[in-house]
C-alpha cells in the first residue's frame, strides 16, 4: 500500500509541474518561448523523480504485467494534480486570459477526429519516451538538458497531443464532458503506443559491444 501511495503522490506532484508548464505556455504571446518554458515542467519531473504517465508507459515493455497497475495509478494521479492546479489558478486574476486561450486550444482538439488525435498522440508518446530515456541514460549534463527540452518544444510546435498536458487544458478551460473524457482516453492510448514503439524496436536491434 505504501508503494502505491508513493506512486500516487509522485504522480500528483507531476500534475502540478505540468500544470505550471501549461500556465507559462498559455501566458506567453511568443509560442516558441512558451514551448521552451513548458519544458520546465518536465525538467522538474525528471530531476525530482516524479511520475509522468507519458514518461513511464514506454517501460511497460521491460516490466511485468503488474506494471500496468502502476501506470493506471500514475495516470489517475496526473489527472488529480492537473485538475487541482487548474482549480487553484481559476481562483486568481490570471485565469481569464489563460482560460480563454486554453478554450481555443481545446476547441481545436475536440473538433478533430479521434484517429487524428490518436496519431498526433502517438508521435508525442515517442518524443516523451526519448526525453525520459535520454535523461536516464545520457551522462553528459548538456545532453540531459537537450533530451528534456528539445522533445517538449518539438511536440508543442508540431501540434502533437500530450494526454497529461491536455488534462490541464481541459480543466482550465472547464470543458469536461463524456466526449472530452473519451478523447482523453484515445490520446492516452496514442501516447502509450508511441511510448512503447521505440522500446519494442530496440528489442530487435543488433547488440553492440
Please, could you describe this protein's structure?
The protein is an all-alpha fold and 209 residues long. The protein is built from nine helices and no strands. Helix 6 runs antiparallel to helix 7. It is globular and about 55 Å long. The mean pLDDT is 96.
Biggest sheet layout: none
| 3D shape | globular
Supply the number of helical segments: 9
The average pLDDT is 96
H/E series: HHHHHHHHH
Radius of gyration: 16 Å
- How much helicity do the residues have? over 70%
Structural category: mainly alpha
* Proportion in β-strands: under 5%
DSSP strand count: 0
Topology (SSEs and partners):
Elements: H1 2-27, H2 31-48, H3 53-56, H4 67-89, H5 95-110, H6 114-137, H7 141-158, H8 163-173, H9 178-203
Helix pairs in contact: 1-2, 1-4, 1-8, 2-7, 4-8, 5-8, 6-7, 6-9, 8-9
Features:
9 helices; 79% helix; mainly alpha; 0% strand; 209 residues
Summarize the structure.
The chain is mostly helical. It has nine helices and no strands.
Amino acid at each position: 500500500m505504501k508503494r502505491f501511495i508513493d506512486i500516487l503522490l509522485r504522480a500528483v506532484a507531476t500534475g502540478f509541474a505540468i500544470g505550471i508548464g501549461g500556465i507559462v505556455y498559455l501566458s506567453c504571446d511568443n509560442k516558441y518561448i512558451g514551448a521552451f518554458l513548458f519544458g520546465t515542467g518536465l525538467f522538474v519531473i525528471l530531476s525530482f523523480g516524479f511520475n509522468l504517465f507519458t514518461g513511464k508507459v514506454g517501460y511497460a515493455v521491460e516490466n511485468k504485467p503488474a506494471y500496468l497497475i502502476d501506470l493506471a495509478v500514475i495516470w489517475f494521479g496526473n489527472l488529480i494534480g492537473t485538475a487541482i492546479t487548474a482549480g487553484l489558478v481559476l481562483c486568481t486574476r490570471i485565469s481569464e486570459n489563460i482560460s480563454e486561450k486554453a478554450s481555443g486550444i481545446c476547441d481545436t482538439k475536440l473538433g478533430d477526429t479521434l484517429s487524428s488525435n490518436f496519431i498526433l498522440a502517438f508521435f508525442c508518446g515517442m518524443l516523451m519516451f526519448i526525453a525520459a530515456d535520454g535523461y536516464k541514460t545520457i551522462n553528459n549534463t548538456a545532453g540531459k538538458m537537450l533530451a528534456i527540452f528539445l522533445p517538449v518544444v518539438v511536440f508543442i510546435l508540431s501540434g502533437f497531443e500530450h494526454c497529461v498536458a491536455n488534462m490541464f487544458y481541459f480543466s482550465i478551460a472547464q470543458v469536461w464532458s463524456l466526449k472530452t473524457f473519451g478523447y482523453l482516453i484515445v490520446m492516452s492510448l496514442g501516447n502509450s503506443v508511441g511510448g512503447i514503439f521505440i522500446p519494442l524496436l530496440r528489442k530487435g536491434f543488433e547488440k553492440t559491444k
